[in-house]
Specification:
The chain is an alpha/beta fold and 354 residues long. The chain contains 10 helices and 11 strands. The structure holds 4'-deoxy-4'-aminopyridoxal-5'-phosphate.
Length: 354
């Protein structure tokens, strides 16, 4: 009799950052969450949620969230697709747009989930090497046979490319879908959502997990031409009609409508990032200029894995990716000013005499 497990799918799953139990002396800078709470409007929306309503299924279209996000960007709800975190939106987009057996291109140093989805769905791929400056080379992506996906800003480098770069890739790939993953765009970059009217093959994916402080609620969305969104919906309805709960729809709408709070918190994070950059440069750390809520840093004299361990001992959680191109670096999320002070104080002490 064949072994039972020979019938099972074998995949190497994505490894998310550690989620330790919260504790007052712990500093969590390892999964690029927002250090500030969600908008007060979110709290209000939660308090208005009645348990009675949970008896009923939510809107399969996740309305009015699509309409609210669309209105925010000057688009119609037919150009918006929402999902249970942008990971789900991206996974469904891989299934919808990259599944015809032709190789998809993405950078060699990037969000490691892309390779996992490609493997899961048997999508061939080619990784395009970042330049020595850790930047993507636009010409490497011309004529991608099966499509393209990359984050902008890239993760874990934090480097953001301008819209002219995105347009160069789009014009060299008119016949395939180009997915721009903008998980970190609100921390300084320019969104490619403004290009959707011009390129019907562009899908821009964003998340509420970072700039809107809602990682725990799981809300992500894609913006694109109506034709792309319809294809995505067909895939979703072939999988799970109700990916967004009633609570996440309500909370998502409240978060989008509070512009003032969104601006206030993202500016605080950008300000802290700039302060952190100056202090880390003074300690001789090297890093590319980040437009995200994290820095990708290395030190000429310190082994990153050793420093990771030393930080962990002090309950300061950062991320170390132990792969050929990334093992010299640590990715450090921008926290509050107080958390940054503790981090910098530790690093200053640690580096003394080394
Ligand atoms: N894209 C990138 C580049 C990310 O770093 C993340 C966060 N891990 C995601 C997408 C997914 O975020 P979420 O599922 O929380 O929306």
């Amino acid at each position: 009799m064949p072994e039972l497990s020979s019938h099972f799918r074998q995949v190497t799953p994505y490894v998310p950052g550690i989620q330790p139990a919260p504790s007052p002396d712990l500093i969590k800078l390892n999964t690029n969450e927002n250090p500030y709470p969600p908008s007060p409007a979110v709290k209000e929306a939660l308090s208005r949620t009645s348990a009675e309503r949970l008896r009923l299924y939510p809107s399969p279209e996740a309305e009015p969230l699509g309409e609210t996000i669309g209105a925010h960007f000057g688009l119609s709800s037919s150009q918006i697709f929402t999902g249970n975190g942008s990971d789900e939106v991206l996974a469904l987009a891989f299934l919808a747009f990259f599944a015809d057996g032709k190789p998809v291109y993405f950078p060699d140093v990037t969000y490691s989930f892309y390779e996992v989805w490609a493997d899961l769905f048997s999508i061939p791929f080619e990784k395009k090497r970042l330049g020595d400056d850790l930047r993507m080379v636009a010409s490497d992506y011309a004529g991608a046979p099966g499509g393209i996906v990359f984050p902008n800003p890239n993760a874990p480098t934090g480097i953001c490319e301008p819209l002219s770069f995105i347009e160069e890739i789009l014009t060299a790939n008119r016949d395939v879908c180009v997915i721009v993953d903008e998980a970190y765009i609100d921390f300084g970059g320019k969104s490619a959502i403004s290009l959707i009217g011009k390129y019907d093959n562009l899908l821009v994916v964003q998340t509420f997990s970072k700039s809107r402080s809602l990682a725990g609620m799981r809300i992500g969305f894609a913006a694109g031409a109506k034709g792309l969104i319809e294809r995505l919906k067909d895939v979703k309805y072939s999988f799970n009609s109700y990916t967004m709960s009633r609570v996440s729809i309500d909370v998502g709408c409240a978060a989008v409508k509070d512009h003032a709070y969104f601006e206030e918190t993202r500016e605080k994070i950008i300000h802290t990032r700039e302060r952190m950059e100056r202090a880390l440069a003074a300690l001789e750390f090297e890093f590319p200029q980040s437009q995200a809520n994290f820095l990708f840093v290395r030190h000429p004299r310190i082994d990153a894995a050793v420093l990771y361990g030393a930080l962990l001992e002090k309950k300061i959680y950062v991320r170390h990716f132990d792969a050929e191109r990334t093992r010299d670096y640590l990715r450090i999320t921008v926290g509050t000013d107080e958390e940054t002070d503790v981090l910098l104080k530790f690093l200053t002490e640690y580096l003394k005499g080394r």
